[in-house]
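Box 3.1 A note on notation
Throughout this textbook, protein chains are presented in two layers. The first layer is the amino acid sequence; the second is a token string describing backbone geometry. Keep the layers aligned when reading.
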Amino acid sequence: MTSLTFYGGAGEIGGNKILLQDKNVKIYLDFGESFTFGKDFFYEYLSPRTVNGLEVYFEFNMIPRISKLYSKEMLKATSLKHQKPDVDAILISHSHSDHAGHLSFIDEDIPVYMGHCTHKLIDVYTRLYKSFQDIGIHNQLKEFKSGDRIKIKHVEITPIHVEHSVPGAYGFIIKTSKGNIVYTGDFRMHGPRADLTKEFIAKAKASKPIAMLCEGTRMSSDVEHNYTEEEVESKVNEITKASKGAVFGHFAMSNVDRFMSFYNAAKKNKRIMVIDTRFALILDSLREHIKILPDVRTDKSIKVYYRIAKSCTFCEKDYAVWEREYFNNKITYNEIKKNPRKYLMHMRFVELMEFVYLQPKQADFIYSSSEHFYEGEENEEERTVWENWMKHFKIRFHKAHCSGHADKDTLKQAIESINPKALIPIHTQAEEEFKKLHKNVLLPEKNKMIEL
């Protein structure tokens, strides 16, 4: 028997936890955290006691109660007895928390497979933000690259690189006893590496799959125009060119395509791209795998920003040992304040305090991250704070963004090209829309099995 059981990613965007069983093989496709995880029961200071493992998560059915899966430490305060795991592998498509966020719960003896760049990115984020991303301890963490053949008993998995808003994203072609299954992971085809997704689609088509698990994040949204990364860079360039002061930009530090868009716009306008020490560490860690990234230690178009610290003198001892690695390429608010038109500076929400020192005049701010932040009601308080800072310093606000997910037309093209015998929509709230694109759509339900 070959089957798929959906413990996450069914009827929701993110939270992928999909169990593939083929004869005596059990493999999870991703093990992520839902975007709504815990929001029904926890708020701010009301949160689970992590020292008690999965006790509270089981109480509210936030985590599937499955034996032979979780670590002894996670089960110590629960009624579920720890047993030797019977899962053969967990395959991680990319580093985003909705695909890898619950790895810290699983038994350390279960083999975990992820791309080499994904591993590097998770490692550096764990180092910088352990409370945000911690995948736990794994005795068998195995890296792969595009085109590898991963053999798990009689099942063979081929990971193929796809383009997404984070480097090291993969789709999988899985050879089972019943035929090939295609798992798209998260993908897009409107950035600088669309060739990766095209290669995945071509190989998925050639595999003649019996089933395709296809993400559909944007299946529900009809947009007049699908903005590309090239258009984002063009808009950032236009804003930067017209600005009479410093330009600030907000985007995810893991989005290297977006970094390159801002970096290129800075260079075109003879400005210097300013990043903080954390961003410098992330880029520095990824250069081994992404050759186009500039060297943050020596590149003349980049400066590393050091916030004012304990001594107020910007001496090395004020900063962590790893931060001192970039000290030779240091810049402070003093230099930027003297000549603001010379800089394009990355700035996160938690760094808005730097405006007090920078005292920007005639500045522009480019918001270049998820549109949901400026549309979602749950972000109203944070959004208001952000806007108040912009008003206080009279900063002109702009938006320039494109999604990390395929638009409706791209999804349609991918499905028609791959032409699976059965189509299973995941990572979407618009499952019914898929019925317009394929004659045999199987709608997954949470905690339910689909037999192939």
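DSSP finds twelve helices and 20 strands in the chain. The chain has two domains: 2-221+404-451, 229-399.
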